[in-house]
């Protein structure tokens, strides 16, 4: 019988060789512990590898998205140049894929001042929306007032129409002003909206004035220089406080102001039973 089976100390703590059974127990426990550690190491390695693959996947996805965005930007602004702080604005040209009606399409197309083109895009949408809202309203109902405090289409369209000439004056194109067949007395800011009592022109007159005036603005906007847009707003009071430059004021009158009152026409349609225009 062998007296020494391994280098373990015996259960008494001395250096005598351990017995056969004690040695087997020590070896089994030791091997089990080593196997367990090996399994944990392998599992940790697999987790690390999976995490690394996941990170690589996220990075790859982000990189692909970045390349896609840059590709879309380059297609939209083919003449833009890359700088340390981004893309230069001076050489950018914008494109517009909208299909405006012939009465509202600017003769200059999408060339000209980028800022003017941006404003023109907003105005073009507003004019198309105004046409959608009003074309199916019977002329005899254009001044109908479902409630006493409701702005009817005649007031809204006439109110918007009188501001086209104001914009033309601000951008230095007073030569394009349209002679309106009515005064601004019943359409200016603060004027009350009432049911038809003879003060409002017909639907046809109001819509033609709206389209003619803003059509001139739409054509002129791309030709306006940055110097003009950055000039001081000639208006006074709260309007100048809110929109200190000509560009600020024109942008509002061509976009936000239009949609504010066209939204009132949209609500009026529903209140009178005509429903949505689309």
How are the SSEs placed, and which strands pair?
Elements: H1 20-76, E1 82-83, E2 86-87, H2 114-134, H3 153-161, H4 163-170, H5 203-220, H6 226-229, H7 237-242, H8 246-254, H9 256-271
Antiparallel strand pairs: 1-2
Helix pairs in contact: 2-5, 2-9, 3-5, 3-9, 4-5, 4-8
Explain what the structure shows.
With 278 residues, the chain is mainly α. Helices cover 53% and strands 1% of the residues. It has helices at 20-76, 114-134, 153-161, 163-170, 203-220, 226-229, 237-242, 246-254, 256-271; strands at residues 82-83, 86-87. A two-stranded antiparallel ribbon has the order 1-2. Helix 2 packs antiparallel against helix 5, helix 3 (153-161) runs parallel beside helix 5 and helix 4 runs antiparallel to helix 8 (246-254). The longest helix has 57 residues, at 20-76. The chain starts with 19 loop residues before the first helix and ends in a 7-residue tail after the last helix.
Strand content: under 5%
Distance between the termini: 101 Å
By secondary-structure content and strand pairing, the structural class works out as mainly alpha
What kind of sheet is the major sheet? 2 strands, antiparallel
* Strands, total number: 2
| Rg (CA only) | 38 Å
Summarize the structure.
This protein is mainly α and 278 residues long.
Summary tags:
single chain, 278 residues, mainly alpha, 2 strands, 53% helix, extended, disordered N terminus
């Amino acid at each position: 019988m062998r007296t020494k089976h391994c280098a373990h100390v015996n259960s008494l703590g001395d250096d005598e060789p351990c017995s056969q059974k004690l040695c087997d127990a020590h070896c089994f426990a030791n091997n089990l512990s080593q196997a367990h550690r090996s399994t944990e190491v392998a599992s940790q390695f697999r987790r690390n590898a999976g995490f690394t693959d996941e990170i690589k996947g996220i990075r790859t996805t982000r990189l692909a998205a970045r390349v896609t965005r840059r590709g879309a930007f380059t297609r939209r602004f083919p003449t833009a140049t890359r700088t340390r702080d981004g893309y230069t604005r001076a050489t950018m040209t914008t494109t517009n894929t909208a299909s405006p009606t012939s009465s509202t399409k600017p003769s200059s197309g999408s060339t000209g001042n980028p800022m003017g083109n941006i404003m023109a895009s907003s105005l073009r949408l507003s004019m198309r929306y105004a046409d959608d809202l009003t074309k199916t309203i019977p002329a005899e109902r254009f001044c109908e007032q479902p409630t006493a405090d409701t702005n009817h289409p005649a007031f809204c369209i006439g109110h918007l129409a009188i501001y086209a000439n104001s914009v033309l004056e601000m951008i230095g194109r007073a030569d394009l002003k349209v002679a309106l067949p009515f005064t601004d007395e019943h359409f200016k800011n603060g004027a009350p909206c009432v049911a038809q009592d003879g003060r409002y022109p017909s639907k046809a007159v109001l819509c033609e004035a709206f389209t003619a005036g803003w059509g001139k603005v739409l054509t002129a906007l791309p030709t306006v220089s940055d110097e003009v847009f950055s000039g001081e707003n000639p208006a006074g009071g709260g309007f100048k406080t809110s929109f200190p430059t000509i560009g600020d004021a024109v942008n509002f009158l061509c976009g936000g102001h239009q949609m504010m009152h066209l939204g009132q026409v949209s609500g009026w349609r529903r209140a009178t039973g005509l429903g949505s225009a689309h």
